[in-house]
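can u do me a favor
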């Protein structure tokens, strides 16, 4: 520490009598440039509560793309913003390396607030992506008055599209549920799963979550007593492990549920199951091949939403190794989607996030040590109890219609930009048999 600065502080204290010993202690600590910040909790951080004024949302003016897309792949990295991407890039390959997300030619930023909060949850943000409307935190597929909103899979079904929903969480989790269900609270998983099985027109569901289809007396989490897994097994196609998915006969039609674990994939409490669970890129490959088969037999195009669910969870528990693993899985899926789109020429790929989680920081290892190849990567929304933040998230795009994903977008604009990329023509009957 600079001795001269300490002496000056002591002289000021003695001469003026205006600085207490407590303030002198803070002064010396400040000169150390925040060595104690790493131990701060959420309540101890420097902060300022600001009241955000009301304002009117103005939809972004979109271009009418000359070249239209036939297919849409939407990848959502739950809890992922620039910091998570930057941290993964640094850890994975170094400051001069590039990851798959860096290969997308079109980029922008997305504002994520919900109808009733500056900081959104996954349900309201995913609803904005799936319906183009703001809703309250916790709601899925409903507006602020709890009225049903037509979601993207339902809209596209009217124009001959086949849809798939993929996630590394349980399938009933907020983001996939926003594209298939309409409930006032995301925690109503019994109702969400019932709607997915009985009402949704989505053809392919791939994720974890078998426990949410089983009643409690059979080891599941359902409180309504319904054995929905037995129903799925008798009326739909049910896959329970990666090998069944890899060896699946694509000529088989009908709604398909791939439920590869009791809860989320790669659960640390069930390590023996990990080898039987697919990666997100493998699920995407399967959904793409199945979608192409539907198109061969009469569908006009496909929509796939694939979520890297657990980037968010790594932020909630403040775990860098967890973040690294989940970012790797998500980035591999983005690479798969980009290569597919490049080979086809008719597919729009959009990669974004619902919100940021954890307030991730990338700092020097010591307050003034800017040189060298060491960095301190830390979560800034409290140790062990990370939460969402209200910072914008990035968006990446490639393919026909990608020109509308530049600049600043609201999350509701993303829905509109996806539809603007498509030449929907006249509505028609569903191409997917119930």
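np, heres the sequence
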């Amino acid at each position: 520490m600079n001795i001269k600065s300490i002496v000056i502080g002591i002289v000021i204290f003695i001469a003026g009598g205006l600085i207490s010993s407590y303030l002198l202690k803070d002064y010396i600590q400040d000169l150390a440039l925040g060595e104690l910040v790493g131990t701060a909790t959420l309540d101890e951080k420097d902060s300022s509560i600001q009241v955000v004024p009301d304002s009117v949302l103005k939809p972004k003016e979109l271009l009418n793309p000359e070249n239209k897309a036939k297919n849409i792949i939407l990848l959502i990295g739950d809890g992922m913003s620039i910091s998570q991407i930057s941290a993964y890039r640094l850890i994975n390959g170094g400051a001069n390396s590039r990851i798959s997300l860096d290969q997308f030619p079109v980029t922008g930023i997305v504002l994520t607030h919900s109808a009733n909060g500056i900081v959104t949850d996954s349900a309201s943000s995913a609803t904005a992506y799936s319906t183009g409307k703001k809703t309250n935190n916790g709601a899925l597929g409903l507006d602020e008055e709890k009225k049903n909103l037509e979601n993207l899979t339902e809209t596209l079904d009217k124009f001959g599209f086949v849809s798939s929903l993929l996630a590394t969480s349980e399938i009933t989790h907020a983001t996939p549920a926003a594209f298939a269900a309409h409930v006032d609270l995301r925690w109503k998983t019994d109702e969400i799963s019932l709607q997915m099985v009985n009402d949704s027109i989505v053809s392919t569901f791939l994720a974890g979550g078998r426990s949410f289809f089983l009643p409690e007396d059979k080891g599941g989490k359902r409180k309504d007593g319904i054995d929905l897994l037995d129903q799925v097994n008798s009326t739909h196609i049910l896959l329970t492990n990666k090998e069944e998915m890899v060896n699946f006969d694509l000529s088989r039609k009908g709604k398909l549920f791939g439920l590869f674990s009791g809860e989320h994939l790669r659960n640390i409490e069930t390590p023996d199951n990990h080898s039987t669970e697919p990666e997100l890129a493998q699920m995407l490959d399967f959904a793409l091949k199945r979608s192409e088969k539907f198109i061969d037999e009469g569908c006009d195009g496909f929509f796939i939403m694939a979520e890297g669910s657990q980037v968010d969870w790594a932020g909630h528990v403040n775990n860098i190794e967890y973040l690294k693993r989940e970012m790797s899985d998500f980035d591999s899926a983005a690479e798969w989607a980009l290569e597919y789109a490049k080979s086809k020429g008719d597919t729009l790929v959009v990669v974004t996030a619902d919100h940021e989680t954890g307030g991730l920081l990338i700092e020097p290892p010591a307050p003034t040590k800017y040189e060298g190849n060491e960095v301190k990567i830390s979560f800034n929304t409290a140790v062990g109890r990370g939460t969402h933040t209200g910072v914008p998230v990035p968006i990446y795009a490639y393919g026909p219609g990608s020109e509308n994903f530049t600049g600043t977008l609201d999350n509701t604009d993303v829905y509109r930009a996806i539809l603007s990329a498509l030449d929907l023509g006249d509505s028609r009957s569903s191409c997917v048999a119930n």
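The chain has two domains: 3-36, 71-420. hope that helps!!
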